Please model this.
Amino acid sequence: MTNTSTLGPVRATSRRDPNRVNPTSTYTALLASIRQEGLLQRSRVFYMSLLGTLVLALGGCIAGFILLGDSWFQLLIAAALGIVFTQFAFLGHEASHRQVFESGKANDRLGRILASGVAGLSYSWWMTKHTRHHGNPNQIGRDPDIDPDTVSFYDEDAAATRGWRAAIVRRQGYLFFPLLTLEGVNLHVHSISHIFGRGKVDRRWLEITLIVARLAAVVAAVFLVLPLGMAFAFLGVQLAVFGFYMGAAFAPNHIGMPVIPAGTKLDFLRKQVLTSRNIIGGTWATVLFGGLNHQVEHHLFPSMARPHLARARAMVREHCRVEGIDYTEQTVGRAYTNVIQYMNRVGLHARDPFNCPALGNLRRV
Model:
């Protein structure tokens, strides 16, 4: 994996080696092999079984909440709900990629119910943002996931930060996991801002109904059953676990992988592989990350069902070896270590108003 925050410029040339295989055709050949193996077929039984398991888990949390009543053990239920809501969000994400049903409408219907009605997130907002990300992962100006936010994902943005944000960015690697506990609130705020905003929202009133009804039901139940202080603690724990789990699941996918400068042209195969990282771990990792541990394969074949990703991995890895394309897969510990190191390295570019530029340069050296 590269130690720089961005890919170097890709030099274009009109002189092509006549013996060189067109990179587009190599992806086409890989796709044909994947399709021939039946790895693009849907796995409806798997997803219906998973959905049934999650519904039972949610029912168990609700039953536990009712039975425990006025007890601080309710915080365990809150943590469990944070995990269950995240798993529902994973399933909604897969529906948005047409992985569950053959019908696009059926996938959208399921995805919207799970995202908006269960997890409390705007399906329309997620689709808009996530589609752009898949089209141009880790490319400055085109991937919304690396747009300027509380933290910075590339050097130029970090260098442009000022004020309180610069103070956070300079320490963003160390603060990364604590900040993830606020991601749940951030996701809900973005969702609500989107559905009530002036921009185009697909099925706006349906999403408003689902999200408002879901939030009202959760808040009403918590404050009707629990004392005031315990109710706030319950919601705090649930949102913190939900945000941490969501953020921790998506963070290793691309953070610390090469960032593509604006205007750079890469073929589809290299663009997706070079910017993505897989997590090694087998079945447990697939369950824990909701299939996102096979990030390379997910980006190459977005509609591939979760049960087929592991088989596709061996084929993609061999294809990349033959083509001389870097294929990154790491243990979960190593991946998170690289994420933190990368975030700290980028954070060093943030200006410190109390330091002179010369001192800042020496510090970076």
In short: The two ends are 21 Å apart (CA to CA).
